[in-house]
Amino acid sequence: AQKITQTQPGMFVQEKEAVTLDCTYDTSDPSYGLFWYKQPSSGEMIFLIYQGSYDQQNATEGRYSLNFQKARKSANLVISASQLGDSAMYFCAMRGGTSYDKVIFGPGTSLSVIP
Amino acid sequence: KAGVTQTPRYLIKTRGQQVTLSCSPISGHRSVSWYQQTPGQGLQFLFEYFSETQRNKGNFPGRFSGRQFSNSRSEMNVSTLELGDSALYLCASSFASGVSYGYTFGSGTRLTVV
Question: Can you tell me the distance from the alpha carbon of A10 to that of A21, in angstroms, rounded to the nearest whole number?
Answer without folding.
Answer: 10
